[in-house]
Amino acid sequence: MKISYFPGCTLKTTAKNFEISALAVTKELGIEMVELSRWNCCGTVYSLTSDDLMHQLAPIRDLIRVEEDGFNRVAVLCSMCYNTLKRANLMVQKDSEKLDKINDFMYKEDLKYDGKVEVVHLLTILKDEIGWEEIKKHVKRKLEGLIFAPYYGCLLVRPPEVAIDNVENPYIMDALFEALGARAIDYPYSTECCGSYNTVSNPDIVLDKTYEMVNLAREQGADAIILSCPLCDFNLEARQKNVLQKYPDFHPLPVLYFTQIMAVAFDLPQDTFGFKYNQVDPSYLFVKNKEKV
Amino acid sequence: MRIGVFVCHCGSNIAGVIDVKRVAEEAKKIPGVVYADTYIYMCSEPGQKLVEDTIKKYKLDGVVIANCSPSLHERTFRNAAARAGLNPYRVEIANIREQVSWPHEDEPELATKKAIKVVEATVKRVRKNIALVPPTIPVTKKAMVIGGGIAGIQAALDIADGGYEVYLVERDPSIGGKMILLSETFPTLDCPQCIETPKMTDASQHPKIHLMTYSEVDSVSGYVGNFKVRVRHKASYVDWSKCLGCGDCVTACPVKGIPSEVDRGLSDRKAIYIPFDQAVPLVPVIDADNCIKLKYERKISEGKIKRPPKPVKVCEKCQDACVPKIINFEDVDKIEEVEVGSIIVATGFELMPIENLPEYGAGKIPDVIDGLQFERLLCASGPTAGVPKRPSDGKIPQSVAFVSCAGSRDPAHGVAYCSRVCCMYLGKQALLYKHFVPEGNAFIFYIDIRSNGKGYEEFIQRAKEEEEVVYIRGKVSKIFQRGDKVVLWGADTLTGERVELEVDLVVLATAMVPSAGAKELASKLRIPTDTYGWFQEAHLKLRPLETVTSGVYIAGADQFPKDITDTVSQASGAAGKVLALFSKPELTREPTIATVDTEVCAGCGFCEDACAYEAIKIDPRRKISVVNEALCEGCGACSAVCPSGAMTLKNFAKSQVFDMVEVATEEYE
C-alpha cells in the first residue's frame, strides 16, 4: 500500500521517536509512506469561529499538496494534525461556499481544492486496512506481561464526526496491545485532556493533571502510558521532571508512542525504537521483557 | 347551489391578522354563495346557532366554515348542519387559522388574500359534495389485551367486569410484568407482592378472562369490530391443566447456572423453571435452548447426530420427579385463532442496556447495576431475600451512588426524553437502602428532581431530610473500577466543583425504552411508532389512548415512560374506550372513503399496492377493485395512483381537487 504522508512540525523536532518508529513499522507492514514533497503547518488548532476562514488556509493548502503529489489519501500520525486537517476538510466538504472563498483567496495555487482528499490516522489504517491478525504475524518479540495505559487524549476521539473510535470508550489501542501480546488497563483518563497549551501559560494546571494521570495509570497497574500525540507526550512525559519538583513523592512512568512498542514487538533494529528521544527512559521495560522471552 | 360561508374571527387568532369582513365580502361574490358573514367565535353556542338558523332561513345546500383545522371543529359544524336538516357531508372547513393567520402573521394583506383563496377553493369543492350516509358494520364483543403487566391486567379486569370476554396475552410464563419484580412502590411504599398479586389472581380466575401466558401474537387481520388474531402458544413442554405447581421437576433438573430473566442475571435458574414464587399461573416451562433432552432431540432432528438403534435415556429427570407425569418432550407451538372486536396494546418498557453506556463501564463493572437489578436486590422475594448485597462479592455495600438520567435526556444516546420515573424510584431505593444500612451513605446524582405527582415531592423531601440521602446536582462523567471500589467522577454544579466519589455499589437509572419486539407488533397491528419506537397515540392531548387504527388502543408504558399510577389510570381509560365501542349494537364509520367506478376499473391492482390499510382487494372473479368500507381510512392514496380514474375518494373527487387547484394557482392581483 502506498499512501501520502503528512508529518507535521513536531515529528521533525521534539517527536522524532514517533516518526522514526512509525516509518520503520509501516515499512515492515508493507505500507509505503510517501512524505509530501511540500507541506506547511497543519494550522495547529482547528478554529471554531465559523467565519474565521483565514485559519483554514494552512490545512487546506496541505490537502492541495496531497493532490499535487497525485494522491487522494493522506496518512497522519500526530493527533493534533489529524484533528485539524480532518475537521478543516469536513468543513469545506459540507460548505461549498466556504471552499470557494478559500480557493479564491489562494488563487495563486496551481490546483483548486475539491474536497476529495481523505485524511486518515495511522491507527485507523492499522485496524481497518492491515488488521490485527496481520500485525500479529509480524510480532517476533511478544510484549508478554507488559501492561499499558491507552491514552487517546481529546483529539483522536472528539468531536464524534472525526473520532477514530467510540467517543466514550475507544478500544483501538487496547486491540493493538493485545495483538502485540501486551494488555491494556481500564484507564479512566484515557480520553481526558492533557492540559494542552496551558503547559505554556499555566504549567501548574498541567503539573497537577500529569501527577494525577500518571499516578492513576500506575495504580491501575500500567507499566507505561501509550499515546499518539506529541503535545500530550510533552505534558505527560517531559513535564514529569517538573512534577517531581512539585511533588517529591512522584515516581516517573515511561510514556511511549504506539509505534515505538510496535517496533519493539516487531523486533526491528534498536535505532528505530527512538528511545534516546524519550524523556523517561523506557528501555528497562523491554529488558525485563526480553529476559522473559 | 345555495352555499353559505361563515368566517370565524377566533378572537384575535384569525381576525388579528386577516381582514375577516373583507373575506366575507369577497365570498359573497363567488357564484353559488348566497350568504356570507363573520362571527367572533363560530364554535360557540350562538355561533353554531347562527349556522343552524342560516341553513334553515336561506335553505342552504352547502356550507363552508372558514376557521381552524378540520381536526378540531369539523365534527362540531357537521353536527350543527345535521340539526338543521342538512346532510353533514355537505359541510367543509376552510382552514384559515393554522394554514393562514398563524404562519403569515407578519403579512396581514397577503394573509387576507390567501384566506379569500382558501375560502373560494373550498366553496368550489362543496359545490360537488354529495350527501353521504355513514356505513355500519357489526362488532364482535370480545377484546384482546396484549401484555400482562399491570396495565394489561387492569384493562382486562375492567373490560371483563363490564361483562365482555377478554383474551389476555402474555409472552412470558407469568403475568405480572415489571411491577411484580419491584421491591416497594413510591410514594406509599406498598409492596407489589401485596398489591398486585390480588389483581393477578383476579385476572386468572375471572370467568370472562382467558389467560394466554407464554403466548405471542402471530398475526392480526380484519378491522375494528372484526379482528382475527392468530396467537402462538409457545411450547412449554408441560401440561399446565394438570400441573400442581409443586416444583419437584425444578428441584430434579440438573442444568444450573442459566441467568434468571426475572432477577436480571443476579441469580441463576434451571432449564425447567417457575419464573418466581407468586407466578400466575404457578407452572413451570422448559427452556428448550438449555434442556439436555431437548437439545439432544433437536440435534437428532437436525441430522447432526444419529439416534442409536437402542434408544438411550438422555435426561428425563424432571419427568421422573413429576408425580402426575405431565411433562411432554414432544410439545410444539400451537396456533389459536380468536375473533375480537377491539385490541388494547400494553407491552410496557425495557431498560437501556448498560452496555450502551461506555462512559459508565459498558456493563463490565460488576458492581454497576441498573435500577431494576437494585429493585430485585431490595425485594424480599428477590435473589438476596431483600438484603442489598452487591453482585461482585456479596458484601453489603456501605456506600451506594445512584445516577439519574443514565442515557435519558441525552440525545447522544438517542434518548432525548425524560424517563419520568427515575427521580422517584432512586429516591425510594436510597431510602430503602438507608433502612437496611442506617450508617451507610447514599448519594444521588441528578440534573433536576422531577417529583410532580401526588405525594411525590413530600416523599423526596423525606428522603433528603429524614433519611439523610445526599443529593448532588450534576452529571456523572465517568465510572470505573479501582480495587474493589467503584469510582465516579462528576461535577457538583451547585458548588461548581469536580466530584470524585468512591463507593461500593453504583445504581444507574438507565433510560426506559420500548420493550423488545414492539416495532414488529406495531407493524402487525398497523399502528405507527414514534422516533424512539414508542407506540404513537392518535392525538397526544385529545386522543392519547387511541391509535390511528380504529379499535386498537394503547395503555401503559408502551406509549411513553409512565409510573404505576399513570399506567393504571390509562389502562382503565383504554378499557373504557373498549366498553364504549361494545355498548353500541353496531359501529358507524366515516363515509368519506374510497369508492370504485366498476364500469371504469381495469383491475390493474395499483390501488391494492398503495393501500396502507389493506382495505382494497381485487375481486378475482370480476377482476376489479373492491373497497372494504370498514378498513378504509379515507387517505386517498388509491385514487392518486389509479391510472384510469376509477378510484374516487367520496367528496374529494379528482374534479373537486382540480377545481381547488385552479383557484389556488391563480396569481394574486
Structure, explained:
- The complex is a heterodimer of chains A (about 290) and B (about 675).
- With about 290 residues, chain A is an alpha/beta fold.
- Chain A has two domains: about 1-120, Up-down Bundle (Glutathione S-transferase Yfyf (Class Pi), Chain A, domain 2); about 135-290, Rossmann fold (3-Layer(aba) Sandwich).
- In chain A, about 45% of the residues lie in helices and about 10% in strands.
- Chain A has 14 helices and eight strands.
- In chain A, the strands form two sheets. A four-stranded parallel beta sheet of chain A has the order 2-1-3-4, sandwiched between helices. Chain A has a four-stranded parallel beta sheet with strand order 6-5-7-8, with helices on both faces.
- In chain A, α2 crosses α13 and α10 crosses α12 (about 240-245).
- The two termini of chain A are about 30 Å apart.
- By secondary structure, chain B is of the alpha/beta class.
- Among the domains of chain B are: about 5-130, 3-Layer(aba) Sandwich (Rossmann fold), CATH 3.40.50; about 240-320, no CATH class; about 350-515, FAD/NAD(P)-binding domain (3-Layer(bba) Sandwich); about 595-650, Alpha-Beta Plaits, CATH 3.30.70.
- Chain B has 19 helices and 32 strands.
- In chain B, the strands form eleven sheets. A five-stranded parallel beta sheet of chain B has the order 8-7-6-16-27. A five-stranded parallel beta sheet of chain B has the order 18-25-19-20-21. A four-stranded parallel beta sheet of chain B has the order 2-1-3-4, sandwiched between helices.
- In chain B, α2 packs across α3 (about 70-85), α6 packs parallel to α16 and α12 (about 370-380) packs parallel to α13.
- The longest helix of chain B has 20 residues, at about 110-125.
- At the A-B interface, loops of A face β22 of B.
